[in-house]
Design goal:
With 252 residues, the chain is of the alpha/beta class. It is 33% helix and 23% strand. InterPro entries: ChyE-like, Class_I_gatase-like, GATASE.
Length: 252
């Protein structure tokens, strides 16, 4: 059974629906909670994949989240080992930063709630994004911006406000600005905490939760497919099969 290291940064931001889908494929998720004092490993030995989840921290909040340097170290290891890596929101921002991109405060304000993500040309041949619809629904909840992608990164999805919503680095690392793990139950809780902010945008927590709830069947279908395809890459033979033009790759 492939074993996956998952880093959760705070309460209420666990692997959620993504974790459910990955577990259904037979993956063993080892979720660590460094904000509760759990220590992170110094290496990724014994793991077949690595997931860094989201949180309210920025990628540079080392003072308030002193475990972030260790997360960056593990991201570098995963990149060097071609270990399948998935960074979600904060995790995607950290991946972009580690790989040489630029993360800034969102120049056009936050994106909160349901959005439609446009498939980019780079997604056509991507092993986990190629089967997505041209317009995919997703839950957004970010204040930072993937301003500049790392060198040689492939853009996969975008929105009108923020064009870099998903990207790939090399053959085995993906960064997301959105939340495939989040459905309406979690959004209801998050939105209740952001009532004042939503009011400045002319919205209510109920509005935001309802739009996600209406799209939930589609959200489940689209992001389960992505989870299944990423799970396949955690098996070494499947990583080679994803890029047949380049032949087998030794990620160990």
């Amino acid at each position: 059974m492939p074993r996956i290291l998952v880093i959760q940064h705070e309460d209420g931001t666990g692997p959620g629906y993504l974790g459910e889908c990955l577990s259904d494929t037979g993956l063993d998720l080892h979720v660590l909670h460094p904000y509760l004092g759990e220590e992170l490993p110094e290496s990724l030995c014994g793991y077949d994949g690595f997931i860094v989840l989201g949180g309210t921290q920025s990628p540079f909040d080392d003072k308030d989240a002193p475990w972030l340097p260790s997360v960056r170290h593990l991201i570098r290891l995963a990149l060097g080992e071609l270990l399948p890596l998935l960074g979600v929101c904060l995790g995607g921002e950290m991946l972009a930063d580690v790989a040489g991109g630029e993360v800034t405060h969102g120049s056009r304000g936050p994106e909160v709630g349901l959005r439609r993500l446009t498939k980019q040309p780079g997604a056509v041949d991507d092993p986990i994004f190629r089967d997505l619809p041209d317009e995919a629904p997703a839950v957004e909840w970010h204040w930072e911006e993937l301003h500049t992608l790392p060198p040689d990164a492939v853009s996969l999805l975008g929105t009108e406000l923020y064009p870099h919503q998903a990207f790939r680095i090399g053959d085995a690392a993906w960064g997301l600005q959105f939340h495939p793990e989040v459905l309406s139950d979690a959004v209801s809780i998050w939105a209740a905490h952001e009532r004042e902010h939503l009011a400045t945008e002319g919205r209510t927590p109920e509005d935001v939760a309802n739009e996600v709830r209406e799209a939930e069947p589609e959200l489940r279908q689209v992001w389960r497919g992505l989870a299944v395809r990423w799970a396949a890459l955690t098996r070494s033979e499947d990583l080679a099969d994803a890029y047949p033009q380049d032949g087998a790759r030794d990620r160990r």
